[in-house]
């Protein structure tokens, strides 16, 4: 039964990593544009993408670890 639980848990981590990365990236972009005085929307977008990818990679790493057992 451990294999089935690990597969479902890993899949949940992978999917949540994608959504959480997008949400945290969007939030970081808004904070960078509004409060950190980044003048260009491209700069704020770059901050959001980098931060979102970092969050997603951490959660995806947890998912792969769960999938491998």
Chain-wise SSE layout:
Blueprint: H1 2-34, H2 41-68
Helix pairs in contact: 1-2
Q: Please count the beta strands (DSSP E, at least 2 residues each).
A: 0
Mean pLDDT: 82
Q: How far apart, in Å, are the first and last alpha carbons?
A: 12 Å
What is the string of helix and strand elements? HH
Distinct helical segment count: 2
Structural class: mainly alpha
Report the major sheet.
none
Helix percentage: over 70%
Assembly status: single chain
Q: Quote the beta fraction.
A: under 5%
Number of domains: 1
Low-confidence runs:
none
The dominant shape is rod-shaped
Rg is 15 Å
State the gist of this model.
The chain is mainly alpha-helical and 69 residues long.
Textual characterization of the structure:
This protein has 69 residues and is mostly helical. It has one domain (2-68). The protein has 2 helices and no strands. Helix 1 runs antiparallel to helix 2. The protein is rod-shaped and about 50 Å long.
Give me some keywords for this one.
mainly alpha, rod-shaped
């Amino acid at each position: 039964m451990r294999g089935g639980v690990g597969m479902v848990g890993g899949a949940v981590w992978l999917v949540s990593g994608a959504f959480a990365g997008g949400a945290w990236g969007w939030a970081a972009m808004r904070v960078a544009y509004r409060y950190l005085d980044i003048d260009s929307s491209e700069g704020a977008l770059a901050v959001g993408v980098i931060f979102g990818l970092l969050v997603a990679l951490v959660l995806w790493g947890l998912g792969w670890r769960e999938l491998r057992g």
